[in-house]
UniProtKB/TrEMBL annotation:
Key words of the record: Ion transport, Signal, Transport, Zinc, Zinc transport
Organism phylogeny: Bacteria, Pseudomonadati, Pseudomonadota, Alphaproteobacteria, Rhodospirillales
Family: Belongs to the bacterial solute-binding protein 9 family.
Stated name of the protein: High-affinity zinc uptake system protein ZnuA
Species, as recorded: Roseiterribacter gracilis
GO MF, one annotated term: metal ion binding
The UniProt record lists the keyword Transport: yes
Length: 258
């Protein structure tokens, strides 16, 4: 097994707009295990893996969305696309910390299958992660509990798992199609929704805040909140990302008097 993890996707880059670089093929050629978010989120990785002439890598590709109760499921298989449009379901499952626990268990199982001699180490690390995650979940739930059922808008359809776990109400999503900027009519419609439902916050991804966010926030008196939904700091852990996301969201709710 390799001594470490090689991250194909650059930190802070929008995964749905990523195009593999020439050197990524060589990196994948030398790897023992490929971990994918799945659900159409990183089809570029599937396409890249097909170019690697190794049958063992194909069998060692782990779709971390397996075993997770996905939202917005479409009745079709995931097909590799241009790397942006959502595939068989909404793929942003990791913004529900309970789903992250399932995914990390899948990672541990794959690592154990690849190297059974590391069972004790893997078990200890999994237990430590779960303990940290459980403590974080209690912390995040307490921080967002005062804002349960508060309506928010989302620019991109990235936050339904977050909303379900912490009981937020996403009144509308600005983009009608992933990656397609809304026109004037859609912006006017969203502004009407914001006013009628007394929405104060617009959730945007830190990596992709959206070109038309200023026009929309002015029209509907919204406060944009850029959330670090994909891990934007080098070496950042999942728990640290969620700490930052929840702190930023709770602070925004408090400032607008929700």
């Amino acid at each position: 097994m390799p001594d470490g993890v090689v991250q194909l996707l650059p930190t802070g880059f929008d995964p749905e707009r990523f195009t593999p670089r020439p050197g990524d093929l060589a990196v994948m050629q030398s790897g023992d295990l490929l971990l994918r978010a799945g659900a159409g989120f990183d089809d570029w990785a599937t396409l890249l893996a097909r170019r690697v002439q190794r049958a063992d890598l194909a069998t060692a590709s782990v779709d971390l969305s397996r075993g997770i109760a996905l939202l917005e499921v479409k009745g079709r298989a995931v097909e590799a696309s241009d790397g942006h449009a959502h595939g068989s379901a909404n793929p942003h499952w990791w913004l529900d910390p309970v789903n992250a626990k399932t995914a990390v268990a899948s990672i541990a199982a794959a690592l154990l299958a690849a190297d059974p001699a590391r069972e004790a180490v893997l078990s200890a690390r999994l237990d430590a992660f779960n303990a940290s995650l459980n403590a974080g979940l209690a912390r995040w739930s307490a921080a967002l509990a005062p804002y349960a059922n508060q309506p928010v808008l989302a620019y991109h359809n990235s936050f339904p798992y977050l909303a379900r776990r912490f009981r937020l109400d996403i009144a509308a999503t600005v983009e009608l199609r992933e990656g397609v900027s809304p026109g004037p009519a859609r912006l006017a419609e969203i502004a009407d929704i914001a006013r009628s439902k007394h929405v104060r916050l617009l959730l945007v991804e830190q990596a992709d805040p959206g070109q038309l966010t200023p026009a929309l926030t002015r029209a509907a008196a919204l406060t944009p909140v850029a959330l670090p939904s994909n891990g934007e700091a080098p070496g950042e852990t999942y728990v640290a990302m969620m700490d930052a996301l929840v702190a930023r969201l709770a602070d925004a709710f408090a400032k607008v008097g929700a």
